[in-house]
Each structure stands twice: as C-alpha cells, then as structure tokens.
Amino acid sequence: MSNKQRKLPLYVQIKNKMVNNVKNGTWKPGESVPSENQLIEQYNVSRTTIRQSIRELVQDGVLETRRGAPTRVREVPQEDIGNPGIIHHEIGDDMSVKLLRSGRNMDRYYAKGQLMLSEMDEVYFLERLRIADGKPIAYQQLFVPVSIGEKIKEDATEMFDIFPSLGRHDVHYKNIKETVSASNATQYEADLLGLIPGEALVDIERTTIGIDTMPIEYSRTKYVTSAFNYRVEIGR
Q1: How big is the CA angle at 112 (ends 118 and 188), to the nearest 5 degrees?
Q2: Number of domains in the chain
Q3: Which distant-in-sequence residues (6+ apart) come within 8 Å of 14 by Cβ?
Q4: Cα 142 to Cα 144: distance, rounded to the nearest angstrom
Q5: Phi then psi for 39, rounded to 5 degrees?
Q6: Which of 10, 53, 83, 211 has its CA 20 to 30 A from that of 44?
Q7: pLDDT digits (tens, 9 = 90+) for 43-79
Q8: Which residue ranges does the record assign to the HTH gntR-type domain (predicted)?
Q9: Looking at the structure, do residues 15 and 100 belong to the same domain, yes or no?
C-alpha cells in the first residue's frame, strides 16, 4: 500500500476498492454487491466503515440502496471520480447515535432560513448524540423539510449518517457546504458530553443541497476535540 493510500481514512480506502470492483467488472451494473457481513469479512473492517463507504458510493451514483433489498450496482463510475478534497471523520470504531428529541417545530427560524423555508413552514428536527465506543463524541442538531423528515423519522434512532437513509428514499445531494469553527460548550452541551462548561468544541455547520439546487438538510454538530480529525487535500 502506498504512502498516499495509508494517509487516507479507512472508509475512503474501502470505497476505492469498491470502485475498482465496479470498473473491472467484478461487480456489474444491475447486480447485487456482497452483503455487509461479507464485506466486513472481506476487508476486515468495521460495519461503520462499510456503511460509510457505501453511503459515499450511493451519493456518487455508483451504487443504489432500497429498503428491504440488497445494495446494487447502478452504473460504472466516471474516470474522474476521486477522493474528496476535504476529509474529516470521527475517531472510533463502534459508532452509534442516541436520539434525544425529534419532531416538527415552528420556532427554528435560523434553520428554516438555511433550508429556504418560510417563517410559516414547519421544519423537522432531530437532536442527537453521536457515540463512539460507548462514549458521546458530539452533540448534533439536524433539520430537514417536513416532507423529508416524515420519510427518515423511522431511521432516526439507528442512522449514524443521514445520507444512506436519504438515498433509500431517492433524495440525493448535489453538493455540501460546511463551515468549521470553534465554540465553547454550554452547560447543556457539557452535561451531555461529559465536559466542563466552556471547554472548546469543533463546531461544524453543514448545508446539503439537493439535485434541484434546493437545500435538503441543515445541521450543526459540535465535537469533542479529541474525537475529530480534519484534513484538506488539494490535487490528485
């Protein structure tokens, strides 16, 4: 394995292997790919890594997933498919989420603005803890239009990432805009994350744009600094 490959997050390495399987015809368009358990055994990685790799390929249009059906190859990827210029990931192996609150809300005006909703519209709201190896690593507030929220609400207690659930409902993104900054933990956030109020957090705001150029998701996630890795890569 090259030095460049070793520097990539594990899920990106596995994604690249999957892309090669499609390009060389091992996995053909219309055919099912191996199950999660088979991929875990084949690549000797965690279920979270496999799911994140599949998520990326679903959003790239290479694979497709539907509830109750195996993941299938959608099309052979273009030659210019590559690794993201910005790579960040949570540090840990056994990933899960804990749902704190969810439902429709009228009062989240800033989030509604990011989703280009009117003040009279409701927004669907998820408040969650992101957990790694049994410990909370991030506090997350996630907002989607109600039409999307009604589709994904059954997955709220299980989905570590929203994108596979969106893909299963044929909701796909065109691009993602993120802003990374630092913030200090409030009393509420500190209690949830096991910190002292005022401790520094990595604060990420994300807006996801759908293929029709309308926002489909807005989130704000505050990470414990020791549980988050962020790197920028320019060029190929």
Answers
A1: 145
A2: 2
A3: 39, 43, 45, 49, 50, 53
A4: 7
A5: -70, -35
A6: 83
A7: 988 888 888 888 888 877 888 888 778 899 987 765 5
A8: 8-76
A9: no
Q: CATH number of the domain that 96 lies in?
A: 3.40.1410.10
Q: Is the distance from CB of 186 to CB of 199 less than 8 angstroms?
A: no
197/224 same-domain check: yes
H runs (alpha helix) in the chain: 3-7, 10-23, 36-43, 47-59, 109-114, 146-152, 162-168, 187-193
For the domain that residue 48 is a member of, what is the CATH number?
Answer: 1.10.10.10
Same domain membership, residue 100 and residue 23: no
36-43 vs 10-23: helix crossing angle, rounded to 10? 110
Residue span of the structural domain in which 220 resides: 89-232
DSSP 26: S
* Spatial contact of 101 and 129, defined as CB atoms under 8 Å apart: no
pTM attached to this predicted model: 0.67
Instruction: Mark whether 75 and 106 lie in a shared domain.
Output: no
216 within 8 A of 76, measured Cβ to Cβ: no
Closest CA to 189 of 129, 109, 143: 129
